[in-house]
Amino acid sequence: MSTFLGLPEISLEAVSPGDIVVLGARDATPYETAKPSHARGAPDAIRSASARYASWHQHHDFDVDGPMLEVVGGRAVDAGDITTDPAMPADNRRAIAAAVRQVLDARAAPVVLGGDDSVPIPVLSAYERHGPIWIVQIDAHIDWRDERDGERMGWSSPMRRASEMPWVEGIIQIGARGVGSARREDLLAARQWGAKIATARQVHEHGIQGALETVPNGARTFVTLDCDALDPSVMPGVGAPVLGGLGYWHVVALFEELAARTRIAGFDIVELVPERDVGGLSALMAARFVTLAIGAIGRSARRSGS
Prior knowledge:
Elements: E1 20-25, H1 42-49, E2 60-61, E3 66-67, E4 76-81, H2 89-105, E5 109-114, H3 120-125, E6 133-138, H4 158-163, E7 168-176, H5 184-193, E8 196-199, H6 200-206, E9 220-226, H7 248-261, E10 263-270, H8 281-304
Parallel strand pairs: 1-4, 1-5, 5-10, 6-7, 6-9, 7-8, 9-10
Antiparallel strand pairs: 2-3
Helix pairs in contact: 1-8, 7-8
């Protein structure tokens, strides 16, 4: 299958208002110059896994009590992969930002298949003229490193870089656990900026709704999902598995809550590592999250009347 869910394949020039546009972004900013991303194969794996759902577009989805895909005033389409090269990180960032900006300028919504967690930096940069936005990050790590080995645009830093974007009004971080990317000074910087961090333990004990309560009703939101947010028992194909992660129903509830109260303006999914997958389970889960995202974007557009 060449497109996600067998959706129509279009060029970016053909994007229309109301469309929900799938884009692949294999590489952004590696820590080792010219080394391909460990998650470079994820867009292909997710599209391939989506074949299971391809004939079910109009079926009732019991998980959301409605159609699997709901698109208001437009289409769900696949615009293919953005051209990237692991040896050209600055060019990659420009290309990713330009592609997402083109989608937004057409008054459509991007759904980006990464790639590693450096991909959200250029994706979020494209919202400069399309904010303000609230970021909802689902991740085992808070990704607030200022730099790593001198690189400030890598996968340890997307939320730190997002916090520097004036069009980002708020950051909600859900699923943090274990020992990972956050040193004490990183956590302090996140809290001083005003990021709300809901640990995986808090979500397990109190549910997902409490983690989202500070997102204003009617806000424009962007959801970024790192696959390692999920427990490795259901998402084994990641680079940094951490025990005690979120479950499938937490993500379903998150999209349900955001679709009911906010306008979801975009989504990305990152850090699926196909070579570490077990029986295609992780790719299937990732594909399912993309269908949930597309449906939630559509429902949020219907609720907001546009």
